[in-house]
Amino acid sequence: SQEALVALLNVLEQHSAAYGLGINYNKTKVIIVDREHDNHREIKSIGRCEVVQSFVYLGSLIDNSGSCENDIRRRTAHSTGTCGHDKAY
Q1: Cα–Cα distance measured from residue 48 to residue 43, given in angstroms and rounded to the nearest whole number
Q2: Pairing of the two strands 54-57 and 60-63
Q3: What is the 3-state secondary structure (H, E, C) of the chain?
Q4: 65 pLDDT more than 60
Q5: pLDDT at position 48, please?
Q6: Closest CA to 57 of 74, 45, 82
Q7: If you compute the radius of gyration of the chain from its CA atoms, what whole number of angstroms results?
């Protein structure tokens, strides 16, 4: 639930502060993975974190469907775009 996630973030923030660390909420994003395709798009934020529908992590597209189809399409489009041009040296 949203309340449980906010509580976990608060605990993380408290324990991190003990070591001089903090959460950068400008960079922290939350994604709701929903395999039932019933994703609640009306949720814009949870606590101080923005809710996103997708993001790229270590070169892979992560989206809220839990599927890798969009990542495969993105990589295929990228490879045909970069490999389709012959370079003259």
Answers
A1: 12
A2: antiparallel
A3: CHHHHHHHHHHHHHHHHCCCCCCCCCCCEEECCCCCCCCCCCCCEECCEEEECEEEECCEEEECCCCCHHHHHHHHHHHHHHHCCCCCC
A4: yes
A5: 85
A6: 74
A7: 18
